[in-house]
Structure formats: C-alpha cells, structure tokens
Amino acid sequence: MVQHRCPDTRWSWVEINKGALRRNTRAFKSLLEPGVRMMAVVKADAYGHGAVECAKVMHAAGADQFAVATVAEGLALREAGIEWPILILSEPPMECVQTLVEHDIMPSVYTQEFALAYGECAAAFGKVGKYHLALETGMTRIGVDWRHAVEFRRGIDFHRGLACAGTFTHFATADVPGDWTFALQYRRFTEAVSAMREASIDCGLVHCDNTPATILYPETHLDMCRVGVGLYGMQPAESTRPRISLEPVMSVRARVTRVVYPAVGTGVSYGQTYSVGRQNTQIATIPVGYADGLSRSLSDKMDVLVHGTRCKQVGHICMDQCMFAVNVDPRRAVRPMDEVSYGDLVTVMGADGEERITAEELADIRETINYEVTCNFGARLEKVYV
Ligand SMILES: *Cc1c(COP(=O)(O)O)cnc(C)c1O
C-alpha cells in the first residue's frame, strides 16, 4: 500500500515523484554524447513541478545548466541558493539589467539597445555580462534574423562588458519526423553559426534542440540540448513515444471532504448540469477546482480514480472544489463501486492501482497539450515531494 503524505491545511495536493524525475533526466543524459551539455528547462516553475526542488534533482542526475522564462523565475532559483548557470529564454526589459548582473543570470539577446545597456551595467560593476544570442530561423517569435547574425555581433562585440556564452535557435516543428521546416531552420542556424565563425566571432555553446529534437534528431545535438517537457515524464508528441521511455512525475491527489446520497433528481453544482439519475448514487466532493488548474472545460467530461476505479466527475467544476458520482447500486450489471467515505484518497491525475489518468487524457478533453495541464496544476496546489 502506497503511503500518501498530504498537506495539513488542504486535502488536495500535487505529488512530485523525485525518483521518476531523476530517471527521466538520466534517460536524456544517456542520449547525449559525452561532452554534450544538458540545459534543463525549468520555466513556469518547472512546468508546474516546482523549479527549485526539480533543479536540484536534475543537477544531481546530470543537468548542467537551467533555463527559465522570466527574470523573477531566475531570481527565485538564485534566492534558493542555486548557483549553476541560468539562461532566460527571451530578452527581458532593459530596466532589469542590474538584477541580471548582480545575480549572474544570463539573458537571451537580440536587440542592440538591450545588449549595450546590459554591457554598460556589467562593466560598471566590474563584471562581464554573459548572454546567449537568439537567432530567428523560422519560428517567427524572437531572435536576430539568421542572415544578420554577423552584422549584429559586429554592432555589439566592441563592448568590453559583454561576453557571448551561447548561440541558439528554437524549432517550430521538431516533433514531426522528417519535417521540411525543421530541416530549413536547422540549415539556416548552422549557416549563421558558420558565418560567424568565419568572421572569427566566438559563438559560445551552440544549441537548438528542445525535447522532441533531442529524441528524434541526434545529429542536431551540437554543444547542448535544452530539454523541458520530457524531463517531467511527458512525451512531446506520439512520434517520440517509441524512442524513449519516460515516467510521469506529477500526480494530483485529493481526499474526499464530504459524501451524500441525494434523492433521485437532485441537481449538482452551479447551473445544475447534472442531476442524480438513480438511487444509491453517492455524490462526493473534493477540494480541487479550476483555480487549482482543473480547467472548468473538463466539467462533466473527466473521470477521477477512487479505490482503483474510474468515477465520473459530475456538475460544473467550481473555483475551489468539484464533485464526482459513485454508483454503489448492487443491482447494476457492471461491478458496483465500494462505498466512498470521508477522507478517501482520490486521484485526479496519476495512477491508482491498475488505472491511470494521464496529462494527455486531460489535455485531449480540454483540446490542449500536456504541457498546459501540468503548468496549470502547479499554480496553487501545495507540492509534496516523494
Ligand atoms: C520551452 C522551451 C524549450 C523546452 O521545450 P520542450 O518541448 O519542453 O523540451 C526549449 N527551448 C526554448 C527556447 C523554449 O522556449
């Protein structure tokens, strides 16, 4: 019997399996040739899994560097005592250059104005501001146009306060094997890097691979891979599933806070979209709602696991709570459920016995991707590391 640690203050929590995180990190590390570095992407609080705790586990399992999306995310890691290299995956506002310099957090760079302001600030502190140059190769999101890389670097390289620690781009279609856009982006990227090298420009660590590219295209690993979603045990696409085995890291659990046997016809929740259809139906409540990342669009469409069995979630999901139905009618053709009691363990995402609800299952119902599902659960629920 698995023991479930539960927070004292609320009967719902995110459970993070550190062993699975460690094994996933090692699995990615083993895809890389010796000397190729791994940058673990811990943006959005490690896709909802808790950036500080995850970074420590990942580092112990082979991650060399860390990537975040915002200055605040970088600061949170530094304030927790994490001293490994940290890269922000876009160029932050110029107003924060001093924070970056003081805390040794590397920005991505793609405007001359930002680069020079950052260099000035670093020089004023007697430091050198390390940065990674972002190149636009076809994602149409951020970066210096790949055709202008040499020109851009010439426009900033005179500054003694700047040092290029890396050059990168990001793929739009790495999850589609043999994709034409992927090949085009990779060619543009490597051409830009070659042009800079021919001009004797130091590119630092050259990197372009996200999770799917790391799995599907070993020839594009270059100096470093930026691995995100896969470390958390999620497949970025069906195409990568046969290539690497990963274990989900996040589960979402709750305990039943109330159970009733309403009369037939009794409505449940706002708008009363569900009403009890037969006798001997239990309606149980758990303290997980859409403010906890259980999207309201899942209402009346998702299942939860109780005693290793699927039960239908019923009624609109509220901000902080939701309900599910348990049919305990002994005359039902299918196996009747055991009665559910106050305090019973409920699995909203994760495994219970033989059954499992995956982030992909919830994502499909919501018409989104697994990435968004775990990010959302990370927002308010307390995290328990097991
Ligand atoms: C989010 C992100 C990654 C990681 O992507 P995954 O698909 O989660 O591996 C890598 N690089 C950049 C620039 C990103 O924004």
TrEMBL record:
The keyword Isomerase applies. The active site is at 43 (proton acceptor), 270 (proton acceptor). Pathway: Amino-acid biosynthesis; D-alanine biosynthesis; D-alanine from L-alanine: step 1/1. Residues 249-386 form the Alanine racemase C-terminal domain. Its cofactor is pyridoxal 5'-phosphate. GO terms for cellular component: cytosol. Keywords: Isomerase, Pyridoxal phosphate. This is Alanine racemase. The gene is alr.
